[in-house]
Structure formats: structure tokens, C-alpha cells
Amino acid sequence: MQKQKTGMVTGKEKASYGLYFLGQNIFYMLIYMYMNTYFTDVGISVAAVAVIALIVKVWDAVNDPLFGGLMDKIQFKKGKFLPWLRISLVGIPVATVLMFAIPNGAAPWVKVTWAVIAYMLWDTSYTLCDVPIFGIVTTITDVQSERTSMNAIGRVCAMIAVLIVMVIIPTFRSMLGGWTSTVLVLSIVGAITMLPICFTAKERCAPEAGQNQDVGIKDMMNYLVHNKYLLLYYVAFLIIGTANVGSVWGLYIARYCVGNEAIQSITGILGLLPSILLGMFVPLICRKVDKFKVYYFATAASAVLIAVTWIMGYQNLPVYLLGCVLACIPAGFTTVLGFMFTPDCCEYGQYKTGNSLPGITFAAQTFFAKLQSALVTAFGAMVLGLIGFVEGEGAVQAADFAQKMWNCSKLLPLAGTIIALVILHFYKLNDHDVQLMAKVNNGEMSREEAEAQMINKY
Question: What is the mean pLDDT of the chain?
Fold first, then answer.
């Protein structure tokens, strides 16, 4: 492993890293926020939507560790992760457009088959871009502060992507000709912004060729089993995300609770702008306070504000909009910090097992992120079915449907966040100890010297 000097990450690298997340999350949010709505709009039942999401997870359970293992074993001449980013540039835009191009007049079985195949292609393409874009911070720099800075830039740009998608879909979808044409435009924008990093990034800390060629399946499983903090964190992440059914009901809530689909654009702007602004201060705050403490406090604050916004309700529009702003404030911290713990777990895993397997570590992150997306899609569809949702764009819902939807969109996330807080209480990694682990992993310090300085015992 080559040693990295502080300050070697260039401004172009940071900017292109952020731009990549802008494009990547345009694709992700199209699927995460609107797949449910689109499928039901074209006439696929909520039960079928739940089945589609779960079927794809069977394939996902295979492809994530498969590609993660390949990325750890294969060392291209031009880098460990950059070649994979280049390969993914075509696959994810094409797969995303296919997801939103189901023929309206097709038979139900054709629609479901089309959805399953397109979703599987998208899922595979996303793995090829998601594992390397998160993993590349470990090969660009081994300095904790620089990794935190790059991750913060990436997450802020990801929130900007959420804002773009939340404004474009409700406001301009009809103007642009419907779902397919709108998604095509957004896919072109996403692909363009993902391109620069392929030419600006430099993998300074990439392992030497052949370093992990002898790592087998047993070693990989041993690595994951012993990486308890990776599993602990992502179980909590999975619970929070799966319970948050409101995150995939945006258009439904705007349609049936507020009575105006375009309101989602307004709530998106009002909610995300404070989050984006706060997110920009995360690197500065994390210089003074350990980032996990910030994340835990923000998660707890989120639980409180979910309860407050539930009580505020949706009947009064100004009060509803105020609630949307309040509920999104903690996201300025949790969204930016959310994936910063994977590099820490990567260092911890190498420290515990002796194997450097960033591909497997970030494949686990991708797996849990996509599993969460699929589960909240399936869970959201099942809950819609239970409260009496009627499929079809423009369909008339029962009189009490809006209140039932509102209650579920708040009380289920509240319960999930409380459970996750209990689990996260047992997470022990901190910035100080992870930096010491990195020095041990890079051969700059002995294990005994590091353990004498650590805050916790591992």
C-alpha cells in the first residue's frame, strides 16, 4: 500500500466526485421515490409491485457479493475502481429508461415481466457504479479528514439530486410528455454529470496488483462475520429506511392528502434546502465532534420531529409545509453522514482480519442500500393495499384513505427510528480509533502502539 500525504486530493477530484453523486442519485431517486407510483399508474397492482421488488432482491443477494468479490480480486492497470465507473456509465442510464417505458396497452403479465427484467438490469448496473464510487475514497486518500470531506461533498450533491428529481417529476412531467420522456431527459443529465470523475480521479492508495488475489470465499465470509460494526450499522439503517414508507409515497400524499400533486415540488424545496445548507457544515462540525455522535443525535432529533409533524397534520397547508421543513432538518446531518461509516468499517475489517477487502465492504453497503429501497417499496405497497388503495392514475380513493395514509407515513417511521436508536447504541467505532487502525493497516504503527492510544477496546 502506497502512503498518502495530507492535501493530495485536488479540487477537480472533489468537484467531479460530487458531480458523480449528483448524477448517480438522480437515477437512484427516480427508482426509490417514483417506482411505486409509476408501476401503479400503468396499472400494476400494489401486490404485484411488492412481489417485483422482492424477486429482484433474490438476484441482488447474488450480484452484490459477486461483484464485490470481483472488484477485490481484479486489479486493472488503470486503477482498482475507476474502470468499473467507466463501465457503468452506459448501463445505468439505459436500464433506468427501460424501467419507465412499460407499454400502457400491454397485458398485465407483460407489464410485470418487463418490470422484473428492467429492474434486475438496473440493480446490476447500479452495483457496478455504487460499490466503486464509495470505495474510491479509500484509494484516493488514506487520510480520515480528506475522506470525510469527500464524502460530505458527495452526500450534499446527492441531496441536490433529490431536490432536482422532486421538482422535475411533479412539476414538469406532463409538460415533457409523461413518465418516459421525463426520465429520458433526467437520465441524459445524470450520465453527463457522472462522466468527469472518470478522467480526473487518481487512485494513489490502490493496493498493488495481486495483493488480494488469494482471498477466497471463506476469507470473505470471515471478514464479514468479524466486521460486527458494519453489520450493526446497516441493520439499523435497514430498519429506519424500510419503516419510512412516506419516502416512497411522495406523489400519493400530495395527490390524496394535500390535493395537489405539484405541492411535492414545494415541499421538496422547503425541506431539502435547509438540509443541504446544514450538510455543508458537516466536515467543519466533525473536526470538533466525532461524526457518529453527530449522526446519533440527529437521528434522535428526527424521531422527535416525526412525532411533532404527525400531530401538526396535513389539513392546514401552511402548517403542513412548516412540518415538512422541520422534519427534514436532521436529514442535513444523517444524509451527509449516512455512508461515511463504511470506510471506517473497512479499516476495522482489515484491522481485525488482516484482509483488505474494500470491494466486499462497499458491496455490503450497496446491498443494504438496495435492500432497503426494495423493502420500503414492497412494504409501502403492502401497506397501501391494507389501507384500501385503488390502482390507476386518477383513481378515486375512499373517504378515510388520506388520514390512514398520513398516520402510516409518520407512525411507522417513528417506530423504526426508535428501534434503530437502540441498536446504534452498541456501535463503538470513532474517528480517533479508526485513524489509528488505518495507521496499523498501512504499516505506519504497530498494533500494540495503536491499542495503547485507543479510546475503546476492539
Answer: 87
